[in-house]
Amino acid sequence: MDVGELDLLVVGAGAAGLGAAREAMSLGLSVRVLEARGRVGGRARTDLSLGHPMDLGATWLHAAQANPLVPLAEARGLALFDHDAVRSARVWLGDHWAGEAEAADYERAERDWGIAVRLAAARARAREGGRAPSLAEAAPRGGFWDATLTHWEGPVIAAAEASAIDLDDYLATLLSGTNLLPREGCGHLLEALAEGLPVTLGAPVSRIDWGGKRVRAEGDFGALEARAAVVTVSTGVLAGGGIAFSPALPAAVEEAAHDLPMGLLEKVGLPAAGADRLDTPAFGGMERRLEEGERAMTFVAWPFGRGHLEGFAGGSLAWELSRAGEAAMVEFAFSELRRMHGARADRALRREGAVVSAWGRDPWARGAYAAARPSRGGARRALSAPVGGGRLRLAGEACHPSLAGTLAGAWLSGAEAAREVAALRPAAGARA
Ligand SMILES: Cc1cc2nc3c(=O)[nH]c(=O)nc-3n(C[C@H](O)[C@H](O)[C@H](O)COP(=O)(O)OP(=O)(O)OC[C@H]3O[C@@H](n4cnc5c(N)ncnc54)[C@H](O)[C@@H]3O)c2cc1C
């Protein structure tokens, strides 16, 4: 692979890698992106096998007002849809759907749950030298809706059990603002943003040597050298030893990768069998009220009026189903839907043609996104510290202090890393 003298090597062509490459090029750096898979987008992938787009990974452009992908999508004429404007949700109470009064009670409980968690965080901060609690320790228990709310905020939103999430990190990474949906999919959006970038696909990096003046990346593709490297692989890949670093990463960075384990969120798309839409409007949400310790899938029906329903499994349930395989994921989705709709679910939806994500088994992801372990709230900062005088820098969703677990956080983290590399550029005429 002859690419001439390079300023920057980027490992990974997901949101962070693409953000890094675009920013570096706009600052005049020469760049090469090495991507293990045969496609760009990383944990954003749009599947078309249902006959229309379905995102298997990233789905919403969260925090739209602060999301750098929103103006980039708009500049390309890609349609963005305000999901919040049409959002509706029904909650199954075991023998009936929540009525108006019950739904209002759920909303009140949600506010109280949020207040209780913030109060617990404030109390923990006031206790000097005390161990920072997990989200589970801070979450209220025993109330009618508490288990449902803790399951929602843990496995469904953060992709991890509440007992495995640092409370301060949970609060620091809460998302606010509008949630937009790219009509053609988030994966499609990243493909569009990768156009014209110097990406080499099918080039897994197995070793990075940053001991010398230049950084060297090696793999079956051969070897490439550059003045600096930005590595955007997931903490799952990092902690699992997916890339050998020589010298080894500093202990604090290595530890940070382990302190940010991958949670798991898996998606399943079930095609409609006929005209029955289960009395649910386009984008209608469905969830169940849960008892303490219970786990469940949540659903979004018929996005954009399309003929499929999307199920989400998170946390320990997702890991179990991911290990059990695609058929188990589909069967679990049907068992959940039967609890809410009876045998009608079997008639309304098809198993054949179902689409199932597999982020847990994917060697280039090893999970969905990372949550800080309890008492390890500072891990995101430690993970993104410059290494080797700035020659090496990790970036990606896990590195962003507030938009972690999102495309926006990944993109911004990559762009920031590229700016740091540009700032280290030797003055004109100086030898690198
Ligand atoms: C089911 C699911 C739902 C989600 N929902 C949303 C959502 O609605 N909104 C949102 O904003 N975010 C969502 N996310 C999170 C979002 O997808 C991620 O935060 C984001 O895509 C991470 O981008 P990244 O660049 O940090 O990492 P990645 O996308 O993982 O990119 C890293 C890249 O590195 C490559 N790579 C790995 N190892 C090597 C190697 N050795 N050599 C070379 N390349 C390598 C990988 O193939 C990958 O392309 C979701 C994720 C999942 C799984």
Automatic annotation (TrEMBL):
It catalyses: L-tryptophan + O2 = indole-3-acetamide + CO2 + H2O. Its EC number is 1.13.12.3. Residues 16-421 form the Amine oxidase domain. GO terms for biological process: auxin biosynthetic process. GO terms for molecular function: tryptophan 2-monooxygenase activity. Gene3D superfamilies: FAD/NAD(P)-binding domain. Pfam families: Amino_oxidase. Coiled coil: none annotated. Belongs to the tryptophan 2-monooxygenase family. PANTHER family: FLAVIN MONOAMINE OXIDASE, LYSINE-SPECIFIC HISTONE DEMETHYLASE 2. This is Tryptophan 2-monooxygenase. It comes from Muricoccus nepalensis.
